[in-house]
Amino acid sequence: MTPTGQGPGPVFGHSMVYDSTGNRMLVYGGMASDSSTETSGNVWTLDLSNAEPNQWDWSAIQTTGEAPSSRALHEAFLRPDNSLCTNFGQNRNPETGGALLNDFYCLTNANGLDPGTVSVWIPMVWKPATP
Questions:
Q1: 61-76 burial string, b = 16+ CB within 10 Å, else e?
Q2: pLDDT top residue among 105 and 88
Q3: Three-state SS string across 63-103, please?
Q4: What residues pair up with 75 in beta bridges, in sequence order?
Q5: Distance between CA atoms of 72 and 42, rounded to whole angstroms?
Q6: Is residue 126 over pLDDT 80?
Q7: pLDDT for 95-109, tens place per residue?
Q8: pTM of the model
């Protein structure tokens, strides 16, 4: 299996979710396998719509909005409205001292399939449950 396109390269600590509507894998964040100090904030899709794996295609999703800090070892899920949501994790950037993250963001149009629609990061507000 050799997909086309550049793709995210070898990473670990990333999140990956399957979009059954668009038949795509979405990859967010992680750390380069040759580095344990720098995390990524990029979003990639792997188009699985072709039956031949050698015809699968990687592409980067261009995003706007207030993006979350780059991260690894985080959680992510895909909402029914095609928003990719991510939370927590760890930023391994030496400038931040490897800070643990306690935030929550959603990316609209995460698979990039809605023509003419920009993928926008939106910070979500945590509201503690009250009894």
A1: bebeeebbebbbbbeb
A2: 105
A3: EEECCCCCEECCEEEECCCCCEEEECCECCCHHHCCCECCC
A4: 87
A5: 11
A6: no
A7: 556 778 888 899 999
A8: 0.84
Residue 1 lies in a domain: no
**Distance, CA of 53 to CA of 114 (rounded, Å):** 24
Token pair in block for residue 97: 């001292």
Q: Is 36 part of any domain?
A: yes
131 Cβ partners below 8 Å, 6+ apart?
none
Residues of the domain holding 96: 11-123
Domain count, the chain: 1
d(CA 19, CA 128) in angstroms, rounded, equals 29
Domain for residue 35, yes or no? Answer: yes
Alpha-carbon radius of gyration of the chain:
15
- Asked if residue 66 is part of any domain, the answer here is yes
Six-digit token string for 34: 């040759």
CATH number at residue 60: 2.120.10.80
The whole-angstrom separation of Cα 62 and Cα 83 is 14
Q: Which residue has the tokens 């990316």?
A: 107
Q: Measure the CA–CA gap between 8 and 34, rounded to whole angstroms.
A: 13
